């Protein structure tokens, strides 16, 4: 409701600026005023406010100068127009929902949720843990990597993400479900010295990425 009213207010502000500019021809100005009054009446209706009765030019009818029968007929016409607008909006929304459902049914997608609890691997230095989906028959990865930076202390580098290491592999379509085999692969890359046993300070290096280990689990 808030978003709908906000969009209507933005439209009214824009149309008000056009009316006050004084650059519109008379026919366009008349049509724009009708759009403004229709938008206001529609907004009042969805907010359960009173319906304002207007004449053909969009001007508010004065009850002191208009007969009761004329007010009643004008109220009927305005109410009918607002109801037609509501039905039109409802129909458009239903069509959008139907098209969205049809599109989803035609191209279904699935997702895989992963929650990393711990990395039980004695590395001795900082590491990068990369998780991805792999097709062993085609010998290729079918997803991007989910990367977690692991410290030498056995905890995530970003300590704020402790117990909150989650990822979702999305957009797995029918083509992926038809694969004979899909594996979940975890790669560990050590980040540090060239050799773990390198204790010579003159040869000491840091920040080098070296493959350390890999593990896989067949999902199907």
TrEMBL record:
Ranges where the Dedicator of cytokinesis N-terminal domain occurs: 2-205
Highest taxon listed in the record's lineage: Eukaryota
Pfam families given in the database record: DOCK_N
Coiled-coil ranges per UniProt: 72-99
GO cellular component, as recorded: cytoplasm; plasma membrane
GO annotation, biological process: cell migration; myoblast fusion; small GTPase-mediated signal transduction
InterPro entries for the chain: DOCK (IPR026791), DOCK_N (IPR032376), DOCK_N_sub1 (IPR042455)
Keywords linked to the UniProt accession: Coiled coil
Example GO molecular function: guanyl-nucleotide exchange factor activity
Protein's name in the database: DOCK1 protein
Annotated organism of origin: Glareola pratincola (Collared pratincole)
